[in-house]
Structure formats: structure tokens, C-alpha cells
Protein 1
Amino acid sequence: METGIDTNLLQAIMDGVISLLELGGPVVVILLIASIFGFALALRKFLQYSKVSNSVLNRLDEAVDFWQLGKQKQAIEILNSSPLPIASDLRFGLEQGASMDSDSLHDEMLRRAGIFLRAYSKDLRLLELTYNLAPVLGLLGTVLGMIEAFRGLAASAGSASESSALAGGIWEALLTTAVGLSIAIVFAVLHALLSTRLETLADRITDIVSRVLTTQENN
């Protein structure tokens, strides 16, 4: 029974998508392709951010705490076991800071932190581009549909089906705007969530790097 229900549901979804493509035309096809690509990209970014949980970042803070307490061995063990590339940069700052002047160490740690964070900000512009372009493409589809509807109206002027043909043409034209706005709303939310995660991560990494620099200045 459940298999039958799932099959019917899948068939209904497929029929709906096909009808949407037929009514919306090439603009809807472009929007759906962009949304599929965008969802895949967003999923990859969420998986990437899942690897920098608070517990993982707290371990980095703990390593700095151990170093400040003079427990260098425990600190290095934590940093070596961390799955984040920034851990090796923090170890560099803690171990090599004594042999570098403070300005050089500061610049080098900021450079390394920037490289680490760049991987998490990568591709967010594509999501932003998706939600910016989706309503514009939808509006373009509506304009093209309205042009087609009025062209058909002019060709069938005076016929009994003139009003219904115009109504049908306008309905199909507005469909692309609805699709574009729907996609834009979803991707605006996804982009906001990922941007918030990036800001939070940047704040945590900046704080940890600052602690490393402070530790070396006090030594």
C-alpha cells in the first residue's frame, strides 16, 4: 500500500513539473535548473559548516588555554587531532611566535586565518546571484508571455474566444513571476543562514587567533 501511495505521489509530482514547464516555457526551465544547482550548492555549504561546530571550535580554545597554563604537550595533542586546517596555523603561532617579531606574527596569522575563512565564504556569491536574478527572470518570462498573449489576441480579434484566450495567456505569463519569486524567497533565506554561519565562524576564529597573539606577547 505504501509503495502504491509513494508511486502515485511521485507520478503526481512529475506531472506537475511537466505541466509547469509546458506552461512557463524556457524561462521556467532556466529557473528550475538554477534552483537545482543552487540547492546542491547550499547543501554542500551546510555540510561544510557542519564540520566547524561549536564543540570543534571549543577544542581550539581549550588548546590555547592549555598553552597559557604551560601545558604545551596537551595543547599540541588537541591541535594535532583537530579536523580543521586552522589548527596547524594556531600551532604555528604558538610555537614560532617566540622567534618572530609581533608585527610579522600578526600579519602571518591574519593571512592564514583569511585563507581558512575564504573556503567558507566561497560560492556564497552564487547563491546571492540566484536570489537576485530569479525574480528578474520571472518578470522577463511574464513580459514575454504577455507579449505573446496580446499578439495572439490581435490575431484572433473579434472571435468569441477572445476574452478567454487573453485570460489564459495572462495566467500563463504570470506563472513565471510566481516561480521566480518563490525561488528568490527560498534562496534569500538560505543565503542569510549561511552568511550568519560565516559571520559567527569568522568571529570565533578571530577571537582564537587574537588569544594566540596575546599569549605570545605576554611571553
Note: Helices lie at 2-24, 26-50, 54-68, 72-81, 86-96, 102-121, 124-155, 162-218.
Protein 2
Amino acid sequence: MAKLGAGNTLKRLRNRYRLVVMNDDTYEEVVTFKLSRLSVYVGLSTIFVLLVGLTVTLIIFTPLKYYIPGYDDMKLGREYRQMKYKVDSLERQVTYQTQYIDQVKKVLTGNTSVTLDTTKLVLPKIESTND
């Protein structure tokens, strides 16, 4: 078996090949390309890098980035949190007002059952100091 060395591999990459596109009916050559393995690798790599670059720039510089899961603009996140706090405090305030209005309605209609606070207060005696 032949030994594959670095020089042998480089020589194989630089060997020239001809790619011919022919018309099937007339056997006329339509296009002829002279290629090597190295030029095909370089060409395909270049196309791959360009496609990846175009895709990345399309996502970064257009509103498509907002459709990526987990992407969150810091300003938007801060605004969402502030709005959530405001909504929570407004809901709490509406609950308090509803309870207040219900209590006022009960008092005005006379449907209150007031329980009196009958606990005895123990007040400390005040000593008068007459000096």
C-alpha cells in the first residue's frame, strides 16, 4: 500500500480536473470548468462562510432577533418589570377600594354586625411629683 505523506496529499489537492457540462442530445459542450480539489474546497468554504455571515447580519440588524427564544432587550425587560409592579399595585388599590365601598354600603343600609372591643385597658398610674 502506498504511503500517504504531506507532500502526496498536497499534490493530490492540486491535481487539475476538468468538469464538462454537455448537451445530452447533441453532445455539444455547454460549459467547461478546470478545477482542483483545493479550489473546490476553498469555493465551498467561501460560500459557507458568506451564507453564515449573511444569516447572522440578517438576524442582528433586523427585527428577526426578537423571535429568537431567550433574546431580551435590557430596556424592554426593565419596562416589563416596572409595568408589572404598577399593575400589581393598581390591583391591590382596586381591591382596597372595593372593600371600602362594600363596607360603606353595609353601614348605609344598616346591615352591620359590629362587634365591640370589650377588652379592658390597663393604664399605668401617673405619679405626680410635687417637689
Note: The chain has two domains: 11-71, 72-107.
Protein 3
Amino acid sequence: MTKSEASGPSARADANLVLDINDLLDDYTSLIDRDDLERWPDLFVADGVYRVLSRENIERGLTAPLVYYYSQGMMRDRVTTLRDALTYEFVYTRHVTSPPRLRLRADGDVAVTSSFSIFQSTEAGVTRTFAVGAYEDIVTRTERGVKFRSRDVVLDTFGVLNNIAIPL
């Protein structure tokens, strides 16, 4: 538990907050799996952060991300680029995630951690494991519901089979 996380019995999130966070996590994977990427940035606050990092590098103290967006605008630009400029093999994705672990922080936000596996299937019917790792999130309450303040995607390995074109 970090210094910014609360502790003790009062640190438990109430049932409605837990449900809201679970809905946010489900919306995240569902939007990506349905290729509804235009709505993906809306899950973050305006100055939200999305990073993809390697566990191996983190353990070595090398925290430079593979992917780093620090605003909804950057995320929207990425989606526009995916749709209009990049050429890549279309794949269907499927996320499988563990139940989240939630910890209230002293600042009122919630630290959320969950494991994931992402599978990709080609139009030819070949399915492969694409990425495995953990999501390390900071979720905050807003007037429009809970949103990601930050989402770190920590990959267990650099062994990603191809470029990271779509959000993980």
C-alpha cells in the first residue's frame, strides 16, 4: 500500500462505487473489443494519462513508456490516425480480465489493479495470445461518473507479436 492510499476499515469503497468502477472497467474492454474506439477517450478525464509499460523495464528502474498519451486530445488523435492513416492487419480482440482490487486513496481517488490477457483473432480464423499483464489505474469521481485519471498497462514482456496499434 502506498502513502497515498488509505488504510483501515474506512478505506473500503462503498457498493455503488465498486459497481461504478466495475462498469468503467467493463466499458473499457467492451469498447475496444467491439472496435468502438471513438468512445475510448471518453472513459478518461480531460487530462487523463494512458501509458503502456514493460514490467521488465519497471523492475530495472527504466520507466519510459512504450506508449504515452497525457490527454483525451492525444487519445482522439490516435484513434483518428488509426482510422484514417495507418495500415495494419485488422484483428478481432478479446480481453479477459481478473476481478479488480480496489484501494481508496487519501486524495479520494481509487487505486485499481487487475490482470489481463488479450487475444487476437484474424479474419482467417487464427487466434493467438497478444498480450498479458496488469492494469494499474487511478479512478476518480466526476460529475459524469467515474473516469480514469490514469491507466498504466504493464506488459509482462516485450514479446508483443506486432505493433501496438489499438489500445490495450
Note: Helices lie at 15-33, 55-59, 72-84.
